[in-house]
Design a protein that fits this description.
Blueprint (H helix, E strand, L loop, with lengths): L1 H33 L1 E8 L11 E4 L2 E11 L7 E8 L9 E6 L6 E6 L25 H7 L1 H18 L2 H23 L1 H106 L1 H6 L15
Parallel strand pairs: 2-6
Antiparallel strand pairs: 1-4, 2-3, 3-4, 5-6
Length: about 325
């Protein structure tokens, strides 16, 4: 009977110890959970390599782990990742999360970066009750995501390079290189003439520079001449123009006063002068005839005519 009672006591004590241990573990677990903060991250990319329990690092320092990975039926392009972060980690506004591969093992972790001192804590609850850390794409993850496109483009590039460097194009490139070599040798042979031409060009440029300086000096002289002597010349010209204007006015007045006399001269005097000139021309012709007669036979012209010579018959010839 006593042995049975002792077994009951031992069993009760053992059961009490087990219940206490379970309660302690549950309390420790709750205490541990209460000392951590949960955040959600929405990734618009593949989360391959990431699993529940994967580490979460902040600038390379382990600060938590992944608690849950789930699809979003209402937004299938996003993957929701719930993480736990230790108390005291500065998750501030500006902090971002990215999936980072761990070596070449295919295992991934979440890398947190971007906290700025003085920024407000990131504690606004998101759609699932936990604050949301914005997601970014790391360089290596972007390369892995774009690997199929990259491989396809590399394949197309290699195909086009093969087409570019076929036999015909290689012969063409060789011909181009030969022509370039020939042109280079020709330039090397003509280098003395080129140097002479460059020297002449420099001399010509120097002469042109001197001519430009001379033209500039002449321009300054002409400008000074116009400013200093042009003003008196313009004043003299204005005086001359005023004098000419006054003279033209006097001529206009004289012409107006002589207009009646001019009309009389045109209507009466000029016709009389014309008749007088005609009469004088007739008298001149008559005097010319008389002078011709006097010159030919003065006596006959004065005494009344020319006498005919006496006729004497020729003697008959024997």
């Amino acid at each position: 009977m006593e042995n049975r009672n002792s077994y009951l006591v031992v069993g009760a004590i053992t059961l009490a110890l087990l219940v206490g241990l379970v309660a302690f573990i549950l309390w420790l677990t709750n205490f541990s959970r209460e000392s951590r903060k949960e955040y959600d991250i929405f990734f618009a990319q593949s989360v391959s390599g990431l699993a529940t329990g994967s580490p979460v690092t902040f600038s390379g320092v382990p600060v938590g782990q992944v608690r849950r990975i789930a699809l979003m039926p209402e937004s299938p392009e996003f993957v929701r990742v719930r993480i736990e972060i230790e108390e005291g980690v500065p998750i501030l506004e500006g902090t971002t999360a990215a999936i980072q591969g761990v070596g070449f093992t295919g295992v991934s972790q979440i890398q947190l970066t971007g906290a700025i001192r003085g920024a407000a804590p990131l504690d606004t609850p998101g759609p699932y009750g936990a604050p949301v850390i914005p997601a970014t794409t790391s360089g290596f993850s972007a390369i892995l995501d774009n690997a199929p496109q990259l491989i396809e483009r590399l394949s197309v590039l290699s195909l086009r390079l093969s087409e570019l460097f076929d036999d015909q194009n290689r012969e063409t490139f060789a011909s181009i290189l030969r022509n370039v070599d020939t042109s280079t040798r020709a330039l090397a042979d003509a280098s003395p003439e080129l140097r002479a031409t460059i020297a002449e060009t420099r001399a010509t440029l120097a002469a042109a520079t001197r001519a430009a300086d001379s033209l500039e000096a002449a321009g300054r002289s002409a400008d000074r001449l116009i400013r200093e002597e042009g003003a008196p010349l313009v004043a003299d010209l204005r005086t001359t123009l005023r004098s000419a204007d006054a003279a033209l006015a006097r001529i206009d007045r004289v012409a107006a006063a002589a207009e009646p006399g001019v009309e009389t001269l045109s209507a009466e005097t000029i016709p009389e002068i014309t008749r007088l000139t005609r009469d004088l021309r007739d008298i001149s012709q008559s005097l010319g005839a008389v002078a011709a007669r006097l010159d030919e036979d003065p006596a006959g012209a004065l005494l009344g005519g020319r006498r005919l010579p006496d006729y004497q018959p020729e003697k008959a010839s024997r």
